[in-house]
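Take a specimen:
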Amino acid sequence: MNSAINKLLNYSRLEARRGFDNRAVVGGLQKMLDPWEAEARETQLSETIILLVTARLRDYPRLSEGSREEILRGLWNRIEQEIPELKGAYSGEAVAPAPAPDPTPPPPPVPEPAKEPSAESSKPAAPSIEAARPDSPEESQPIEDMPAATRPETPTEPPEPLSALNAPLTTISGIGPRSATTLKKLNLETLGDLLWHLPRRYDDYSQLKTINRLWYGEEVTIIATVDKIIVRKARGGKMQIIEAVVSDGTGSIRATWFNQQWITKQLSAGKAVVLSGTIDQYLGKLVMKSPEWELLERENLHTNRIVPVYPLTAGIGQKWLRKVIYAVVDRFARRLEDPLPESVRASAEVVPLQVALQQVHFPDSWEQLQRAQQRLSFEELFLLQLGVVRQKREWEALETNPMPVSDEWLDTFKASLPYELTRAQSTVLSDIRTDLAAARPMNRLLEGDVGSGKTVVAATAIAITAANHAQSAIMAPTSILAEQHYQTLKKLLPDGAGIPSESIRLLVGGTPESEKQEIREGLANGQIHVVIGTHALLEDPVTFDRLGLVIIDEQHRFGVEQRARLRAKGNNPNLMVMTATPIPRSLALTIYGDLDLSIIDEMPPGRMPVETHIFLPSERLRAHNFIIHQLQAGHQAFIIFPLVEESEKVEAKAAVDEHEKLQEGIFKPYRLGLLHGRMKTEEKDEIMEQFRRHELDVLVSTSVVEVGVDIPDATVILIEGANRFGLAQLHQFRGRVGRGDSQSYCLLIPDSDDAAENKRLEAMESTTDGFRLAELDLDQRGPGDFLGTRQSGYLELKAARLSDVNMIEKARREASRLFEADPELQHADHQNIAQSLERFWSSAQGDIS
């Protein structure tokens, strides 16, 4: 017998003989868990059993004797399922006198009635979560002081039907129509929504750090009371500094914020507040600069437990919501049926769902919380990967006509190009050539930084397709980009691929109707080999004779249905999607995990990196003079603003107003254009065309300035409010310059001089590696900047982080392993996961692309 199992059996038998008094081990049965777990791992005991034992016995001392007997008996029943030869080894019969009845009331079937919270009050009355028993010793205690609930590894009661979680919140006594309306602002409408309304952080009130124990440079959270708060002006009145002095009885510290006067309306003297941030130093005294903060309700301060802190909205108090969620967790969590098969849980080393949901809301320890978070994160990523792997398999099952070319043909084509391919381009081209020669359609994502040479790779793929008597279609998001591709391909294809110039056509919204008709006829009869266009390609009259290759540029700008409609115009055509946005590895494994990935990670020789510099707001005139110097040398410039028009609520410069000021002021001798998202498509195209023809010297724009637009004479881009943009977006802006032979520059001006805000921008100065910046951006801002219109459901992930590469890789391994064993998920143990998979992907539909 395994030595760890033998010890556990002896402890359990002795505990039963003693009447479950928790004295079989000195200090209590829970004291043996850490050394026992270490021995169990050393002796290679099943991870499932280890998790069973540690999770069930962690709360053992808090239980009554009757509950302890039930826990041990249930534990050994589970162990016997894992190790059948142990059947009957533990009888669990007590020989001591029968224990007194457990004074703790059982979990209630439904929460007790409570007063409905007022939508105007931030501290509504809290509903009772106890059963209606007048002798309950904990009836009036707040949740923070209640002992942890019994948390078995598997439900001790019949599984709760999932349909019960679809019940509206008004089924909870104490939540009326007014409260339900308020909760709807948090997207909480059903009991299931409450169950999955996860805490945004946790406060361990037993380990809070007091002000007198703070050290310079450490990241801390303190709880204090506001003594005073003032606003003072700096830099000639252009900046407002909000200063709050807070104290906690052991000392005081100053916290400062910049240009956020609204804080004074909430942090008035006497308010209790939670502050989180880095301890800095100013004039020899410790301070906190721009800390995260939130008001604290004093009655929430209780020791000896980890307290969840939930996202709120006006009219909902933290304490009230915490108690409502406790009622739902206590009622449902332990009764839910776990969708993950036990084989997957054991292989992935994650705890059951019942334990995870209880511990993620009301954790007994940081270790238990971490395990719960890992389990919930794994489940979401596992479902995501199941869908991705399924899409990839469905694509690989399709058939298409192979399109091979000989080495001699390829060498001849490459020799016709105006420049030699880089190593990275040659590697990617080899992948594409292999794909096109296969009997299944290509499904490839081509990543490459701005200016890395994606278009010439696409041109080679088009040439291979034409050599096999098939047609190609390129879809770009704007007429300007489509026109740019059209001009480039007309230079590259006729000589190298022998494609007549007249069989390469451009189809955009502005194409005359007579020409559109001519192009449609040429595509239908096969006389046109290559068409480059925008959404106009999706129109029903556009048909192809033999569509063999679909290329989608800046693919995140197109939705699922648009890509599918273009693909449907051929018989399983090859698909290549291109993006100039560097995609972090974790996202490539998830959002784009159904595509084969190729990366052009090398710039063509001679391309000079764009110099990036941060200017303080007070140095704006210096930045403008630098631009004028570039204009005088015959170059052009971009000036980017975060907003279209100024707003009273947002203190940021806006394009429309600033364009007028700049044109009438320092840039009066020059021609300034204006571009923003409220303009019609035709107006935007005309402005960009004027800028490209050098009829404008400076383009003042919001973030709509197009990715990939080639303006060789533009050598400087100034980005106002740079702190408001993600690093990936800033990197895209930077790619608007540096397309010619001259040294180019990117100037960043944040909203304030605050070093904490500018620190993130320093990464732009230190590296031109788009992938490094993308990783930082994903960590700091989440996946929104990378998703576009592909699968918005990825933003709905509640527990998982799309930057967690290790967990994503684990989920992908487990998903692949499950599909290898049961591709259709027809096994009895896989029915729950099959249903969960359909629910998950019904709200985050992807494309086989």
Remarks:
- The mean pLDDT is 81.
- The chain has 26 helices and 21 strands.
- Residues 366-396 form the longest helix (31 residues).
